[in-house]
Design goal:
The structure is a single chain. About 40% of the residues lie in helices and about 25% in strands. The strands form 3 sheets. Strands 6-5-4-3-7 form a 5-stranded antiparallel beta sheet, with helices on one face. The protein has about 325 residues and is an alpha+beta fold.
């Protein structure tokens, strides 16, 4: 009895999910590889009939090429022991937050786990079942509609990145109408707001560049291995601000005069590790920090409008004065 139960346990673990399948002959071969006691073909046939009764409708078969081909239902996962509620919750949250970050083939493979997790949370009265309705992730900035990305193209790029292969691509540069042909070595994907960037190189040993996925109009995976620049690190690439529009390679010694609301905000969420906040007698605060000179910095500063005054560097203060004058001229227009 113990041998029979152990054998059936191993058989259950062999059964793939549809559209894949396994025959009894393949099951016997796998049992031999595991050095288990293998009975007759007829015994395995009886095992499968018994398991099909117990695990109906999960375990199914079809006749093809004069053989029973066994498979598990593609929509669910048979877990022994049964998936716990906490595990089901993690899978549901992962499905919500990580879909864009997963290779398409692997995401499809996980769909059965996601379905099973949702079923477990829907059927069981546990605190975990209600957690999905108690948590949301919202963007910090103004919500924008994500640009449309061709699924076939994105699948190709994801698979090339997964397999470390180069891609042949057609890419439309900003401001142009016709695509340019490239052969790219994919290095990584970066998700920034609503835009997904492929960090890649165009030639061996060239500097990496970020290309928005929605501007690709064609992509084909090749058999060529990708070329990775010596010492490339995706985290370092991001920290160095390569995804920002850099004004110069130099850092800025930034000094700002802040209203209380902005000072409170920056005391909780720092702009830089070396930042200093000094409360002044006026109730405002003097802010000092070393920051990168980027377009993103200017966009962020402009978002606070009159609550911030740029003191230093003088070049940035002058730039803001000119911007303000141009804005004032637009609003002073007599148009009605």
């Amino acid at each position: 009895m113990a041998d029979s139960l152990l054998r059936q346990w191993h058989i259950l673990r062999m059964i793939p999910r549809a559209p894949r399948s396994i025959t009894i002959s393949q099951i016997i071969e796998n049992l031999n590889e595991r050095q288990l006691s293998v009975p007759t073909y007829r015994t395995i046939q009886r095992d499968m009939d018994t398991l099909a009764e117990i695990f109906n409708p999960f375990l199914q078969y079809e006749m093809r090429d004069k053989a029973h081909r066994w498979f598990m239902d593609a929509r669910t996962v048979l877990e022994i022991p049964v998936m716990e509620s906490a595990t089901a919750l993690v899978l549901c949250l992962a499905q919500q937050q990580l879909q864009k970050q997963m290779p398409p083939n692997e995401l499809e493979h996980l769909s059965a786990y996601f379905n099973t997790a949702a079923q477990i949370l829907d059927k069981h009265e546990t605190p975990y079942a209600q957690w999905r309705e108690k948590i949301r992730v919202v963007p910090q900035t103004q919500s924008l509609i994500a640009p449309e990305i061709n699924k076939k193209i994105s699948d190709t790029i994801y698979n090339a990145l997964l397999k470390n292969r180069r891609i042949k691509a057609k890419y439309i540069k900003r401001g142009e109408e016709k695509p340019t042909n490239y052969t790219l070595s994919p290095l990584g994907l970066v998700f920034r707001g609503t835009v997904t960037y492929l960090v890649c190189t165009m030639r061996d040993n060239w500097r990496p560049i970020p290309l928005p996925l929605h501007r690709f109009v064609y992509a084909e995976i090749t058999e060529q291995e990708r070329s990775v620049p010596s010492g490339f690190d995706l985290d370092a690439y991001i920290r160095e601000g390569k995804l920002d529009y850099s004004i110069s390679d130099k850092s800025l010694e930034l000094e700002l005069l802040l209203d209380k609301q902005v000072a409170d905000h920056l005391s909780e969420s720092k702009l830089a590790e070396d930042q200093q906040l000094t409360l002044l007698a006026s109730g405002q605060s003097l802010f000092k920090a070393t920051v990168r000179d980027t377009g993103q910095l200017r966009w962020w500063l402009r978002g606070f409008a009159e609550q911030i005054e740029v003191l230093k560097p003088e070049s940035l203060r002058q730039e803001f004065k000119e911007t303000i004058e141009k804005m004032k001229a637009k609003y002073d227009d007599n148009r009605k």
